[in-house]
Amino acid sequence: MSEARLSNVRAQKLRNYTGGEWRDPDTGNWLDVENPSTGETIAQVPISDRAEVERAIAAAKAAFPAWAATPADRRAGYFFALRDRLVSHQEELSRLITEEMGKSLPDSRAEMKRAIENVEAACGMPILQQGDKLVGAAAGIDGEVLRLPVGVFAMIPPFNFPGMVPFWFLPYAIAAGNTYIVKPSEQVPCTMQRIAELMADCGFPPGVFNLVNGAKEAAEALVESPDVAGVSFVGSSRVARLIAEGCARTGKRFQAMGSAKNHLVVMPDAKMEDVVRNLITSGYGCAGQRCMASSVIVGVGRDTCAEVTERFIEASKQVIVADPLDPKVADEAMVMGPVISAQAKARIEGLIETGVKEGATLALDGRGIRVPGGEGGHFIGPTVLTNVQPGTEVHRTEIFGPVQSIIQTDTLDEAIAVINAHEYGNGASIYTQNGWYARKFKVEANCGMIGVNVGIPAPVAFLPFGGMKGSQFADVKAQGKAVIRFFTEDKIVTERYWPEA
Ligand code: NAD
Questions:
Q1: 214 and 344, same domain (yes or no)
Q2: What is the pLDDT of residues 331-351, one digit of tens each?
Q3: Does residue 272 share a domain with residue 233?
Q4: Which of 79, 123, 160, 172 has its CA 20 to 30 A from that of 360?
Q5: Among 48, 97, 156, 465, which is best to mutate for testing ligand 1, by the most ligand atoms less than 8 A from CB?
Q6: How far apart are CA 350 and CA 434, in angstroms?
Q7: What's the 157 CA to ligand 1 centre distance in angstroms?
Q8: Do 215 and 312 reside in the same domain of the chain?
Q9: Nearest to 297 by CA among 421, 399, 431
């Protein structure tokens, strides 16, 4: 990796940032970070042990009282500075995301745009954090709600949005007066390392923001520490459940957002041309590794299902599969890069086989695709399974790759029943021009984020983001007003004064 991209990886080794200092962690345990398009090692990440994590927690705990007492406008001021730095480094950060994660450059740019939007939203904290006051709660008595920072918070993100997901939480937590620790995904730690460098340049007081690289052990140390007040986790439901249980055991607040299996329902009156374009970006953007990606297309009625299947397969064949940093395709709107690792590729290919064994038709097989120059990468081409039966393993399991399952139902009621019977409830969309169908779907489909003629209904930073059922193990969503409640504690004051004698 070039020095220009990441000054802290001169020796190809990433570092931790604790108490305002860059540290070479005391660990003999390092993991190679790979460019999934080429298989090349681009850095090495330390797998920090508990002692490293405890150092970061101690730094954050020590910094909390002074930071909490810093006036709200001054706290927000650091985020104005960070916003400027993120904007001026947006292209560099986007390339870094593409290099370590494999999504297309336009996707990485959109990811950084959303991260920046969250910083902008958190700059409004002097207004957003205001409490309430009831003058005359009783005779001569006033009631007041103080919305106060809580302490040290930690974030444990997944691999698929290394620049954005931490920003669903971090700016709000810190701007509200808490101190913070991020433990990036060990598969994609470079983007957050560079962002931490930019944060260090903004002059946040030492210990307010800390970065600890690591994996399971570091995450567990954060969850188990009595000095961490709350944890925000985003990743698989298997781990989300463990994090939720651990936080409940240690009495801390938590957000735990998990896996997804998003259904996109196509009604007979849908605008088919637009729908298919939308389905392609939803299903194959980020090689299907978005928690809001389309995974199941539900065609309502035999003719609609047949038409959408035929058009979707034809359009799938046109998707460009390539190293997204290849200059010939880098700025194309719809380029599909690799999946994150050899292990992920093997798992996805195994699930395609499972679908076939269960009786689905493999209408388009992306296995064995050859990408010139990407021989060391982890590519799978667009893959379509038709005649998938609800409740089979390939339908129940989150594939997290460029594989679409197509299900036919006779009615909208039946389509909603398929969605509602599923373990996960992150997102779902309907394509229709009919307000009655759309309203029914909005109300009856049990998913946290609903799209109407929108294939990736990921809310902007000013609105909450989060799923339902097995996709979320807490009642507090990311972003928006909800997350400010998570990062603050309401203290209710009942107050009166007697008249002077
Ligand atoms: P993952 O669960 O494997 O890892 C997520 C994080 O947890 C990483 O930082 C990892 O180091 C840590 N971790 C792994 N095992 C752990 C353990 N046993 N104890 C404590 N920490 C542990 O997820 P991933 O593969 O990195 O990300 C993909 C998943 O994330 C998908 O399931 C996807 O749907 C989900 N996701 C969900 C959302 C959402 O908003 N619901 C958003 C993005 C991604």
A1: no
A2: 888 899 999 999 999 999 999
A3: no
A4: 160
A5: 156
A6: 39
A7: 6
A8: no
A9: 431
The reply to whether 209 and 356 lie within a common domain is no
144 pLDDT higher than 70 = yes
Q: Which residues contact 440 (CB under 8 A, 6 or more apart)?
A: 412, 416
CB-based contact 416:240 (threshold 8 Å): no
Dihedrals phi, psi of 150, to nearest 5 degrees:
-110, -40
Query: Are residues 305 and 364 located together in one domain of the fold?
Result: yes
**Which residues' Cβ are closer than 6 Å to ligand 1?**
156-161, 165, 185-186, 215-216, 219-220, 234-236, 239, 242, 257-260, 291, 398, 400, 426, 467, 471
User: What is the distance in A from the centroid of ligand 1 to the CA of 419?
Assistant: 23
Q: How far is the CA of 189 from the centre of ligand 1 (A)?
A: 14
Average pLDDT over residues 366-394: 96
Q: Are residues 126 and 41 in the same domain?
A: yes
Sign of torsion over alpha carbons 287, 289, 290, 292: positive
The mean predicted confidence, pLDDT, of the chain is: 95
pLDDT for res 439: 98
Q: How many domains does the chain have?
A: 2
- Asked if residue 205 lies in contact with residue 63, where contact means CB atoms within 8 angstroms, the answer is yes
Give me the sign of the Cα torsion angle 456, 186, 194, 226. Answer: positive
Give the CA distances from residue 319 to residues 38, 94, 160, 381, in Å, rounded to whole numbers and listed in that order: 19, 21, 20, 8
Q: Could you say which of 123, 286, 291, 447 is catalytic?
A: 291
Q: Which of 49, 236, 237 to mutate for ligand 1's pocket (most ligand atoms within 8 Å of CB)?
A: 236
Are residues 60 and 139 located together in one domain of the fold? yes
- CA of 158 from ligand 1 middle (Å) equals 4
The residue nearest atom 43 of ligand 1, judged by CA position, is 291
pLDDT in tens, 27-85: 779 999 999 999 999 999 999 999 999 999 999 999 999 999 999 999 999 999 999 99
Q: For the domain that residue 432 is a member of, what is the CATH number?
A: 3.40.309.10
* Domain that includes residue 294, residue range: 262-452
Rounded CA-CA distance 483/496 in Å is 32
**286 catalytic residue (yes or no):** no
Tokens of 301: 């009625």
Give this prediction's pTM: 0.96
What's the rounded Cα separation, in Å, for the pair 326 and 487? Answer: 42
pLDDT tens per residue, range 238-251 = 999 999 999 999 99
